[in-house]
């Protein structure tokens, strides 16, 4: 392999990432059914989104319109090409293909939309990187089956996976099964269990046990998808996808260190199973100690071994820290909603996310040591309030700094530590609806979209300073990370 000064291969996959439900809009067009994202309202900066029982009159659902990518994708893909993207990570909205989720045959209009999108990418030699399930399960599977509480949903998911693998076998090579499958290790947060698994927990239920059962069905579904995909096209690269937020001990007290170790085990058992094909010993012991009687069959365990992933995709936004509490067994009582503490050594974004570029190098090394698989950074970025000037510019030097510092650490991990990284797709290619808050004003993109939190705005697109900066980074294959031209560019609308 021929390497550049930064240690990056010449065919390094630079690009950008999004998810279908956050930008497509057209929530009821082309036969699409409702998804879990379609019944979530918008929230403020520090609130949780409300989950309503179906679509209710008088409520505002920001994903229904997104940024209208469903209709405007040709101009957006053209802008991605102008930035020099080698790849584009998006997801397929499951409810476009199987509107209810439990049909036997896919919806042709939904399949045809992704044909058009992938063809448009290929026109510019942009490789699609496609997530099968990115927080957008058909809502009918929630109301009818309780989401991934039910083993039946494994069958529906694999039917969906088979349909899209067959349809796009010559257009898509890189796949990811479940987006941030490990987010739900934070089981006390209603948002994560709902978006990952379509589950709402009753007050008298043990949310942790519910999460382990759903998580098990999902790792099995993932392993089946890997097997089906490889049969359809042996060249497919099918990865797992986790949210990589390393959990540091708050101090060097041994109990804090033990607690942080357990926190890492609890966050990353999903990828342990998807990569290794077996459950870690601590977790089977833990199930016994807790008295959990999970539905895990011998056939499941055999499938996990047969359906190991080809690579590991992960998002990296921030690091966490945890501290042990008085009078507890730190390895038996980790609960993410309760046990994270503020790391005073790193700054925070406006949404309280701890910004820690060196944590990315740490993460790359930790994942490489643990899994020995190619790694793909499929999300990394900062949500910020951007100001559009009167002449349609956005001077987002804070975004450039965030990405600059993280790419620098990635390159150190590759060059100095020998970590195999396949590519880098920052979040997000273009401004989209925030997953956690439903805000448009929590912007991540290189391209500004004129849309406000209440849905008003012209939807016009404008290039930010970071657009030109990233274009230059890609053109130099990551060798020059410095801002170009003082960050001032002619206004542009497309
Ligand atoms: C990840 C998700 O959690 O982070 C994305 O995969 C999400 O869907 C991104 O948008 C940023 O989070 P948020 O909540 O700020 O949109």
TrEMBL record:
CC annotations in GO: cytosol
Which terms are listed as keywords in the entry? Answer: Glycosidase, Hydrolase
Q: Could you name the active-site residues?
A: 379
Can you supply a Gene Ontology BP term from the record?
carbohydrate catabolic process
Which InterPro entries does this chain map to? GH (IPR017853), GH_1_N_CS (IPR033132), Glyco_hydro_1 (IPR001360), Glyco_hydro_1_AS (IPR018120)
Q: Which SUPFAM superfamilies match?
A: (Trans)glycosidases
Q: Name one GO molecular function term.
A: beta-glucosidase activity
The protein's matches in Pfam families, at most eight in alphabetical order, are given as: Glyco_hydro_1
NCBIfam families listed in its UniProt record = PRK09589.1
Family statement drawn from the similarity comment of this UniProt entry: Belongs to the glycosyl hydrolase 1 family.
- Protein's name in the database: Beta-glucosidase 6-phospho-beta-glucosidase beta-galactosidase
